[in-house]
Each structure stands twice: as C-alpha cells, then as structure tokens.
Amino acid sequence: EPEVTQTPSHQVTQMGQEVILRCVPISNHLYFYWYRQILGQKVEFLVSFYNNEISEKSEIFDDQFSVERPDGSNFTLKIRSTKLEDSAMYFCASRLTENEQFFGPGTRLTVL
Amino acid sequence: GENVEQHPSTLSVQEGDSAVIKCTYSDSASNYFPWYKQELGKGPQLIIDIRSNVGEKKDQRIAVTLNKTAKHFSLHITETQPEDSAVYFCAPLGSSGNTPLVFGKGTRLSVIA
Lengths: 112, 113
Known about the structure:
The complex is a heterodimer of chains A (112) and B (113).
Chain A: E1 5-7, E2 10-13, E3 19-24, E4 31-37, E5 43-50, E6 53-57, E7 65-68, E8 75-79, E9 88-95, E10 102-103, E11 107-111
Chain B: E1 4-7, E2 10-14, E3 19-25, E4 32-38, E5 45-51, E6 56-59, E7 62-67, E8 72-77, E9 86-90, E10 107-112
Parallel strand pairs in B: 2-10
Antiparallel strand pairs in B: 1-3, 3-8, 4-5, 4-9, 6-7, 7-8, 9-10
C-alpha cells in the first residue's frame, strides 16, 4: 500500500540554524500539507500546497517557514532560523482528490 | 474558523467494554468528519470517516455517528482490545475540499487488560 514517507525521523539542531524537513507524498496525490504537533498537544495545520503554490497557511507559518516541491516527488519544509519553540513533531500529509489525507510518520525536531 | 471540542480528554475502559468519544464543531458548512488514531511515535492514521449525507457508518468494531443539527459526531469502539490504546483525534473538514483538517485536542484511550 502506498504511503507518505518523511526524513529524517529525528533532527536535532541549534537555535538559529536552518533545517529542511523532507517528505515524499504518495505519488499520484495532488494536495500536500504540513502539520506540526508540540509534545502532548493537538495537531496544528501549517500550510497546504497545490499546483506548485501555497494554497493556504496558518498564523504559525510566518516568514521563517517556506515550502517547496523541487522535483515533482519531494515536498520540503524549511525553517530558516529555528527557535526553541519550533521543537515539535512535523507531519507531512497528502491527498488525491477526496477528503482523506494520508499522514507520514513524522519528523521529530529538537531545537537546542 | 472551525472550533473543535473533543470529550473526554482521557478514557480508561476494561478490555471488552465499549468506548465512546464525542466531537463537537462550530462550522455548519463542515461536510466531512474523520477520526484519526495516533499511536506513540507515529503519525495520525485515518480509522473511519463519514460524510454529511450519512448518519452512521460502521466498520467492524468501529462506528461513527453524525448529528449535523447538533453539530457533533462520535466515535464508538466496541469490544475494546489493548491494541486500541492510543490517542484519537477528530478533524472535521469544511466545505471547501482544500481546507486543512482542524484537529480536536485528542482523547487518550487506555484499554486495561
């Protein structure tokens, strides 16, 4: 069964450093999402991406964040200058046309 | 935007008993109502969903019921097993198919053997 994959599974970085989180959505899907989950809290929407552009973003997704689909298979989330409060699990999700979103296993980001 | 409330926040049941988790939402235009299960260290996995033109849907031991008038939907798990222990999230979706999921705060279900 096709699945969303994410790398790395765990990323540790120093405050102020740039990180790139990578996702490979399900191959024929058209809509892509990033969500994050701070430890013990609910899953929060960051950004959605369709047709090579951002379609919606939340208040969390400020100028420090960017997304890219560089090669037609990968979908990346970049945080330019990480802050302590960026420490969280980051989930990528994708969907085809129906409502069901398929989630990846997540990347645990730890900012020291 | 959508305001989602989920109750209870924690639930402990004996193995074999039933569990019910309720989700209320605010956007009357919501038309898709999924439940996700999240096991420790993993991403959310869709376990069942229902669309607004249906009142109930069942898949083996799991069922979802929808009350659009009252704006709530519930997850029912019967004959619970230890492997049902996880955090469950509701995430109603608005009328525009590209809107993101808005997750509830989650319910931690513990099934005691």
